[in-house]
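Subject — a protein and its fold
Encoding — discrete vocabulary of local shapes:
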Amino acid sequence: MAKISPFPTLQQDPGPAANRSASPGPVDLDKAPAKRQRDPRLDFYRGIAMFIILVAHIPGNRWTGWIPARFGFSDATEIFVFCSGMASAIAFGSSYAQQGWALGTARVVFRCWQVFWAHIGLFFFVAMTMAALDTYGSFDKTYINSLNLQHFFNNPAPQLVGLFTLTYVPNYFDILPMYLVVLALMPVMMGVERLGLWAVALTSGLIWLAANPYLVGLGPDGLSLPAEPWSQREWFFNPFGWQLLFFTGFAFMKGWLPPPPVSALLGAAAAAFLLLSAPFGSWKVFLWVDAANGDLGDMIRPWWQTTAQWREKSDFGLLRYTHFLALAYLGWLIAGTGGKRLIASGHSLGARIWARLLGIITKVGQQSLAVFVFSMALARLIGFALDQTERGIAITALANLTGFALIIACAYGAGWFKSHPWRAKR
């Protein structure tokens, strides 16, 4: 079986050797170049993650009981980070290959600049919204305290400095800083890649070990970043741990890692691992097991403490990594080569509906940064709206579906603005 990239129809970096060997041939000016069809898998799964992230961040949302985080070690955050690594290989890999390390790094720095200001803008919008609700509303709760923002409002001067230096990273605003630091590690990885792929793997592995020293018996406390000036709390998403997953996705898309073989045996093993690990990684599944068989529940309960560090979310424990890779492998098998099983065929009503749904989810995945920032602000407003109701099943469903419609509108709006429709067409 010939080696192929896991996303073979996406643009790949040809590398210096390919550039040297390529020679220009005659160009037919009357013949338009064939438009390469974009592989749907990356944006499809990233779009799915965006919907799950919205559900997960709506306060008091009944639907959070059914997101992937309740059924295993990993969740939508892993999908987002892994797919972001793949997307970064596409977006920045060609810059490094074609324009060199310095200009490739300049492009990464610009992206970090964009992510930084997206983080700052998100914080101030949400903080302002919570302040407006507390100032002009008469509610039985304080929305500022619901996000633990009272320190910012009580003593804003040092918190402003901390916010802009990323030494004050409140919970709920921690994904984008993690993403920013991981992006900032990309020039390091592209630099050591000149020594060989072994150097990239070694560097990423050592950084992860520094965040998770328990694996080699060096104790529970590892490399991390401070999140609050007044406490010892660390970043909830430790970028030195999570970079391992980001660069795994990056390596697959760059071709540094070969695609896994298509194997029914591997698929069965991955599915078995996901099923058997569910009671050990999820309180929801454990409750079901405990209710069905108390003796089995008593046997599982001690393992929760034993495996706590191995399934740690902040530092990205090894069990989370293994769980996600098993889930990703099944997703890769289900989608088929080039995502062919995702693409609807035929003209039946079902095929047309699926094609439309696929297009919507893909659009959301394509505009993931805009959608993510919008959804984090939207989730708090939906939570406020639910506070004014009894949170019944129908009302909760309406709230979530309204949120879905709004992030879809955000994705299409962002895509429209990025197309620069005001420019004159040639």
Summary: The chain is about 65% helix and 0% strand. The chain has two domains: 38-71+347-416, 75-270. The radius of gyration is 23 Å.
